[in-house]
Known about the structure:
Chain A is α/β, with parallel strands linked by helices. Chain A has helices spanning 40-48, 70-75, 93-100, 107-120, 122-126, 137-149, 167-182, 194-200, 218-223, 225-231; strands spanning 2-11, 14-24, 29-33, 55-60, 63-64, 78-81, 155-159, 186-191, 203-208, 211-217. Chain A folds into two domains: 2-77 and 153-231, Rossmann fold (3-Layer(aba) Sandwich); 91-152, no CATH class. Chain A is globular, with a radius of gyration of 17 Å. Chain B has one domain (13-280): Orthogonal Bundle (ABC transporter involved in vitamin B12 uptake, BtuC). Chain B starts with a helix and ends in a 14-residue tail after the last helix. The interface between A and B is medium-sized, with 34 and 22 residues. Chain A: InterPro entries: AAA+_ATPase, ABC_branched_ATPase_LivF/BraG, ABC_transporter-like_ATP-bd, ABC_transporter-like_CS, BCAA_Transport_ATP-bd_LivF, P-loop_NTPase. Chain A: Belongs to the ABC transporter superfamily.
Amino acid sequence: xxxxxxxxxxxxxxxxxxxxxxxxxxxxxxxxxxxxxxxxxxxxxxxxxxxxxxxxxxxxxxxxxxxxxxxxxxxxxxxxxxxxxxxxxxxxxxxxxxxxxxxxxxxxxxxxxxxxxxxxxxxxxxxxxxxxxxxxxxxxxxxxxxxxxxxxxxxxxxxxxxxxxxxxxxxxxxxxxxxxxxxxxxxxxxxxxxxxxxxxxxxxxxxxxxxxxxxxxxxxxxxxxxxxxxxxxx
Amino acid sequence: xxxxxxxxxxxxxxxxxxxxxxxxxxxxxxxxxxxxxxxxxxxxxxxxxxxxxxxxxxxxxxxxxxxxxxxxxxxxxxxxxxxxxxxxxxxxxxxxxxxxxxxxxxxxxxxxxxxxxxxxxxxxxxxxxxxxxxxxxxxxxxxxxxxxxxxxxxxxxxxxxxxxxxxxxxxxxxxxxxxxxxxxxxxxxxxxxxxxxxxxxxxxxxxxxxxxxxxxxxxxxxxxxxxxxxxxxxxxxxxxxxxxxxxxxxxxxxxxxxxxxxxxxxxxxxxxxxxxxxxxxxxxxxxxxxxxxx
Lengths: 234, 294
């Protein structure tokens, strides 16, 4: 579904991502875990076309999207829930969701999906006329997820969906991610919260200072000693 | 103080204020989307007026046709300036953009000075409607038409930005360019449209202004541009209703100053208003500090 080959990203002279390769197959949940500054967000930005890689290839369903514009990538079926949600604070919840469907032209489909999002996130329906900036952190996360789903993506990228949320909310968000996956959307999940991410991931990659150092199934990594020490608190 | 004189000055203020507002809208929209003070915006006004002059006086085109031609020329010029001068610098430091904008402004002034010399040209009479009589007042057609046209354009713009898909894309880009791209919004296209709309409004402003003050010269855009820029900052740069409010406030202050204090003091007082606003409300009258929830 999504294949990253020898990706290199530079910020000026700094090599942020060095020869990173990984793959997400259709229907999987793949987690990319690593500490702050490991380069997780940089990789997601490169995939979504917000950053130009210095080298390497990104293939979406076997099509090379390395040089494709960010807007075209969304049209090809890849959506991202960015770090810190980045909802449009000055627009209403409903306007945010409609912006998620920006690339779509099927009015009926959009209306149907809007109802589907409201069923999945009833709190968003209650607050549909409210400005997104007035929502709580958890509600904003749900809005950001709903907004990305409005694009009807084949593959969904989530950047730190647990950031700044209470443990109970984190559980809720993660069960929603599993649910989205069960309904047929492939998921690439980037997380610092390794425990939660490995709990739902089919496979995972561990990123350290711009390089992939470990890979395996979610269970394998969760029980690996190195991971336990570094990310799971012993 | 004579009430009727005061009333007339108020109408004067609304007239020039609505022109400031139209121009300020261009500054504020471009700033909101591209985070750039487009100092060449004033020159678009001048180009708009000269286009009408060339079309009618030199080429003998009917006036009704010269107006849309002027609007299209200015919209196209706005898009070209962005593509040629600003787009290559999009990731550069802001100061380079600012210097480039001033450069474009000088370039256009000099170009028009070369072509048309700096001698003022007389602008054709466009508005041939009878004056409006309200009791003992008679308001010239230029005045009420300027006001009416401006207000209509502002309402149309407001509806456009709130209700159309393109308008919503513009609001999204102005709030968070990266997030807007993740929605599939094409940033380049959105920026071009913004420049086109802003420049088209400047063309209309130029035509209305030149109808009231029918002598045009290659430098007419700079003072008007600076005043409109102040209006945009006073109202809160990047905020559309702010530009309208700032424009009217500035126009009224100007005309009342001319009438009751001293016409030489006008500019000094306008700048004083700017300073006072910036001291007490640095983000402008309608500006607010954005808060982010984490």
